[in-house]
Amino acid sequence: MSVSSPSVFLLSVSGQVEAGRFMGGDNLHFNYCFTAGQDWEVVSGLEECVSQTACCSDDERQLFVWNFPIDITYKSTNPFGWPQIILSVYGTDFFGNIVIVGYAACHVPLTPGTHTRRLKTFVPESASTIQKLMSWLTGRRPEFLNPKIIAQGRGREVTRVRSHGEITITFNVMMKDFAKLGYDCGAPSKVPYLGAPPPPQTVTVPREGQSDA
Amino acid sequence: MTRPGCFPRCVDENGVRTPAHSARVTQLAVAGTHLPRGLHHRDPGLRNCLSCRQGENIARHRTRRGTLSRSPEQPAPVHRCLEGAQRSYDLPGHAGMLFAALQGCLPAAPLFFLCHAKVLSQVNTRPVTIHCRNTRLLQQAITGFKGMRGRDVESQAEREATRFFSATPLPGPASQQVLQAGSEGQAVLPGPSTAGERKRAGRLRKLITRGPTRFDEARVTSRIQGEEFFTRVWPEEQHTAPSSPGFSLWDILSPSKSQEKKDGEEEDAEGAEGESHALVGPHPCPPTRSTPAVYVPLHLRRIHQQSTLFLPSALPSDLRSKLEEGVSVRDPLEEGLYVGEKPFLTPANRNIVENRLLRQNNRHWFSETGSLERLNTPINEQFYHHLPPHLQEAQNKEPLTVFMEPQPIESLQDCDEGTGGVLDLELCGLHFTHHPLFSPEHVLAAQLTQDYKLYKQRVNLGATRILQAKLVVLRQSLAKLREAGDTTNQLSQSLQPRHKTAREELDVARRLEIYRREVKACREEANVEAEKDRQLLTGLLRTWRSIKDLRHSSRVHATSIRLLIRKEEGDRAEEEEQRKVELEEEVREVLEERQQEYEAQSKRYEKELAEWKAEHKKRKEARRRQEERRKAAEEGSTPDAQGEEALIQVAQDDTLLASPEPPRPSRPPKPPPKHKVELEVLEVFSRTRKPPGEPVVSLELTQTPLPELHNCPDPEKKRRQAVAKIHVWLRVLVNNKLVTQTSSTTLGADFTLPLGHTFRMALSSWPRSLTVEVVEGASLRQTLVASITLPIPGCTATTKDAPEVAQFSGSQVVSHSHAGVGCGQVGSQYGSSLTTGELKYKLGWATGAEGEVLAPLGPPPTHAAIPPSSSTALKWVAPPEGGVADTRQWLQEARLDPNDPANAALIAHLQKSAGGRSVRGGGHYLEFEGVAGWEGGRGGGVRLRVLELRDQGEPLYRDARLVPALETQVLRDPLQNFERRTREMEEEAEAVVAVGDGGGSGDAGASGDGEAERVKEVGEGWGAELEQRWERVEGLLASLRRRLQLRYSPESAAPVLEDLVREESIPDIGTLGSSLAAVFRARRPLRPTRRPRDRVRGAALTDQHVQLIVHVARAFNVPVRDPQQQQDSLGGGVGGGGDGGCVRTLVEVTFQRTTRSTSVAEGPNPTWNQQLSFPFRAPNDNFSPGSLQQVREDVFLHLYDQVTQDLLDDPRLRPSTLHHRLHHRWLGSLTIPFSTIYANAKIEGTFALEEPVMLLGYTREHRAAHLPASSSSSSSPPNTPPGHLPSTSLATTHLSLYITLEPSLPPPEPLKAQFESSEPEEVVSAGREWVAALASRYPRRRFRTHVLDLSGRLVCLTRYLRPLPPPQELMCQDSAATGDIWANSEQFLTLLTGDEEEHAVLLACFFLHLGKTAYLLLGSGVPEGETCYVVTRESDADWLVWQPSTGRCFSPRHPFTPLHAVYQLVSQDNIWGNVQKYDDPPRVSLDVGGSGWRPFFGRGGLRDPGLASVQPPRLTLPLPDPAQVKELQERLELSLRDAFMKWRGTNRTTWNRHAIKVLRKLVERMEETRTTAAATAAPHHHPSGSSSSSLRHQHHPNHALLAAIMKSHQVCGVCVHLGYSTAAGVVAAVHGAGVHLTQAPGVEFALALHLHPYPGQVLSVWVYVAALVQRF
Lengths: 213, 1672
What we know:
The complex is a heterodimer of chains A (about 210) and B (about 1650). Chain A is built from one helix and ten strands, in the order ββββββββαββ. Chain A has one helix at about 130-140, and strands at about 10-20, 25-35, 40-45, 50, 65-75, 85-90, 100-105, 115-125, 145, 160-175. In chain A, the strands form two sheets. Chain A has a five-stranded antiparallel beta sheet with strand order 3-5-1-10-8, with no helix packed on it. Chain A has a four-stranded antiparallel beta sheet with strand order 4-2-6-7, with no helix packed on it. The longest helix of chain A has 10 residues, at about 130-140. Chain A is globular and about 60 Å long. In chain B, β32 and β33 (about 1440-1445) form a beta hairpin. The interface between A and B is medium-sized, with 36 and 27 residues.
């Protein structure tokens, strides 16, 4: 295909999973994965990664800092199935078992530029009290069979979740050939980079950790 | 000089808005002060002017604060640049006060003057000068200003010629002044001083007081040029002013600005920016010149003004003046013509325009009505829909069909009530128009009321008046036309006689004619209407008279009715005069008409008479000739000389005379003389018009209070008591069920029942009927008076504002002794009528919270009322059928008013359709061309279609990734192919279903013919056609299944929690116990049991690794190498070459292109016990049951003998060197479809292998065959299931297998939905009960009485069986189709695809025809799972079970049957369920008469309803064309050879022609021997279970043919037999034989293929492949 008329558009996402706040649990690590629709293909970069284990900060912030980089480039022909990042955070419980601490998912921002997302995480709840007790004892908490479920809408109605913490991600989004293929992604939004720590209340939180699939 | 029209609007520093004249002010200011150039910028006034000059810009760019300078020395002028309201009261300064004061004191016309009065004042300047032309205004201003200032105001108006007013400034700081003024201003001006003003004043105050102000003595003059720019004629010197050289403001400003910057004074950035904006704004005005002010004395100006200015009055103008002379006012509206609606214009504005026009003496602007001629309002009520261009062209057909996007009806969408609706019924009131308790007066009153209503209606309509007005106009027009015609005639005759064409004349005549006709019609119509009016009036008066008489006679008022008659005396003489004129006119007209009529008639008469005369003459002639002939005959002379012509003449004469003579046309009557006509017209007049002098009567119906009861006479009293006693209530019935009723109330004296009840009813479906019953009753008894059936509202009808009226009438006959008149009595004066009345009600569906209509879902029943069309004035007169000409005629006759918008659509349409002129322009037809790139809507585009198909999960596109982003890059061909195929498939499906429905009415033959034709068309041969059909059928079945799933499982896999969340299950007592027991359990039990696995749901299985596990246990009865041949076999085996019966076998399993094999085991009964696992890839990684059911892959198991060939040539090397070649020889294979594994979760058992029919070089181990069963069982492993004992009868190789999926995938949920059925309901329900009863007792057995047919309906099983004559041969087709759909045999044979059920049905039908007792056996078998066999009864206790898909048969006692369990038997007329203890075939008694079977029909259950069979009476199975078969065979063989060579890869493939020839001979006899053997062997050898496959090559008679070859060659060959489906299938089968793997040097191959055709295009394929190695 000639340069003048591209047949695909490219979406490059870099950034990092910066930090998280979680009540309870320590030695957290997470893994992230991207999902995208059928028309999307990874050109380069890692679709799934596991982070290092982070311990809680000693100061009063009680922060888990990972600063874990994201770098992936997609090519696509169809905005349907826009890529989503799915984070599942694991940590150790009281008995030292590795348990799920939180799930979060969000779409890659739709406009080029730097975006900060503060995702609220959640974990599935036990179906009954006795199962809760059991899971606490055995260290086998309920978790999603497939974390990609949280990027879909179907079937979510049967689950019950408890929100559990939050995690901050920064995306740097670049796009190519969107306009040429007739997609208008608008101007880059001017969300300030979170480098200078603003008070949490004033940060624009465009969306919750829930996905709308 | 400034140009008028480009004045910037601005506000000066005091906030006084000086609209449109600031430039002039600037000019004046500059002129007045004559400041040196450089100082201008320092002058605040000038700076104000600058800002004024660019007021627009300042208003935009400057903030409100807007100080130019903040220097303490400088005054702080405040620029208030306000855009906004014209009447800005935001005037905090002095001038503002003044301005406001002016406004306050001149409330009437403030704007006019103020707009033109320029008040330029300055806060800081001492004198305030006001220029005003208007002395009155000035006076007021001065007083106002004085009032504000309080003192030191001096009026100079009288003294100075310029009349300016100067106020000396106050002593003290200006701020104080301002403060003072501001406070005073608030006090003085109550109106305009608003809060905002106060605020701003305060801010201003602050600003001013901030810096100490030291003002110059600058005196800014404000002049008022009280002149209008638009109307004034400027004096000469002002005109010349611009041309005079001078400095313009612009010239001054530019250097001043630069200087300002240079000075570097404290300019705040904002101000500078604002100023620069102000100065070099986007639209600078052209430089203006300053001229010295010239004052014109006021009185001069006033005079000038009076001569030049005109103020149009807003009062209505005189009507007369608007009309041309000699034109009378007429109102087309009154004449009944349509006058369009004019756009709204306020009367004042209209009057102004009119007066202006009148002033200009432009009368042609006015119409005859005396009003402005205006176009009708262009806003069209109708929406015009744009027709697509292709429809616009081809639209001479009616009615038009236009594609409209489907639009969801909101009411249906948002109805959350399920399918029901909420119906609102409001009963407003009931009124009796006749009741048994009516007194005679009531009857009359009712009549009066009714008549009055009609009268009122007619009066409102005013039809007579309109018609008469129209008549007058028509007469006038007629007269005018006549006159015009005469004059033009004269003119044209006198002036241009040549130009008077016939056409014009014709036109005039035609128009005259039309007018005449019109006048006549109109007159008659008017007469009819007027007569009706008269009659009504007289009737009313008569009724009223009789009521009055009645009241008088009975001395009581029974009703409160009263008719007021108003009379209006007219001028008798005038009326008489008018009447006379009318009379004359009418008489004249009638006379004229009569005359014309007479003329026309007499013309016709003359013509007819001439005809008649000619006819008469002819007759006379004929009679004369006849007479002559008669005479001649009497005389005896035969006129033979005359010949033929004479004969013809005679015949003609005879016919002429035989017909009756037509009567002579009668002369038309003379037109009646004038006096007669006069009489006639007079008579009509007497009927229709009121006699002159009679007063004009208008009526009004009112009520009067009724007299008290005790005043009444006795009968009336009694009647009233009876009325008071009676109670009436209404009952509402829906579907003839009582829903509700109103409370009972007594009737009033006027027999009305005010109700006002609203009933809200929730209905589950459309009501069938809605009835309101009127019930009346006294104390105990109640009678139904009448019932009213209300129309059921349409689905969008809601309750309306106006109530509807339903008339009702009862049928009872009542008579009373009191004054009540009763009803229904024959012969009674008043009581003859039945009880009647009317009910007012409102009925409609309720609206929901969001305005949706809560009507029930589904289509309304047919009798539901169509919602009445909205108020279209057009009464639709249906144009007669029959095309354009009729329509046109109808249009002409109907004479619709083309101006009326109600008719516009019709007329436009009719004209268009009649091919007339263009459509009357009404709507705007917007041309929306298809916007490129838009993908919605119809058509959409290829890309969108592909995306849609992918979303729907079409197999072709399900896995499509990266669908091209651009429309042009999407491949069109596959899509088009796909669409075409889908269409064909649909057609095919319909055809097949139609075959089933048609019951074999020869459709098969027809389709066969169609097939043949298509073959010729395709031209590729029959095989390709067969293949295509195969593909189509596959797709068809898939689509059928998908459609069923779509239809009956709305959410096939609704996820549950287990699908999404992994969680520990709750421990119950069982799991606890087992976990406790696990402690004590043996670690390695002797007999391990399989632990049931956790159920894993499909939705969770994404990305999981599912494995197919094949456990190959062992094989039985593997053929061993023939020792005789083995000696001289290929190369000689190493491992088992020595002993004769050795075979080294291995099993190779292939699944999804992965091939694994077991190790090699030796002997005829090898044991591998090996587990092979294969990764399973679901289509598109979708592990949902729906997609798993679509998996069509098979597990192939091949049993090979591994032959080791020693390749060492030199035997001396043998001790030290190994050089072997391994060669696999195919011994048999087994194919298990994945769907079977999936459906059954696991497959376990011993299966017979498909073996080559001929296996050269191998033999069965006869020793094993002759061994007793015990010895053979001892050799088998201990845990063999009892049914799987190898027995003596075992003639084929069997393989023990265990196949499963890990983790186990959930089996597809059976469709539990209610299917439609065409069966009688009781049969279906009885079947359901029967199945439920049996299933509860035997949960593992599956019973069913009804199955789905191809069209997705339930059909009783018995209907599938019917004796069918089989064709000569019976051949079954193997198929891979699995499903629950049962096709009947004809469909089956048309499709050539079916599973066990179809085969079994066909086989059973054939058996039935042969007279055998045959049953369909439903059970479970291996490997197919739920399956269907056929059982035939051979003798009393002997049964044979037939496996229909392979054609094998065996005894049920046979231990190695593929049948595992027997669930039920089906015969032609009954179904029996197995209620025996066991269901494995050897232990099941198949005698259905016994107690072990529970029948479906009979025995306490349902009687056999005698269901007709779905099978056709006979099958027509066309034999394929031998030539085609031959061709296909050749092609197949060729392609096989090609494939074979390809498989060989780099090795050279040599074909041995001789061997091929021999093999071909062999192969051709195969089918023959097979069928004969099967036919003969089956019945006789049944105990041993022999079958067609029992043929062994040892016994084969044709084996000798091979002998010659085998002498010279080592032959290793395989014969494959299968039913033909596709060429690929045949190729795959040959590939599975593995002959091509032979690697021996110098190997040659032989391949022969034979096709045996069977009726119904079933083909049996035999392929013989052999590898030959020359013996040395």
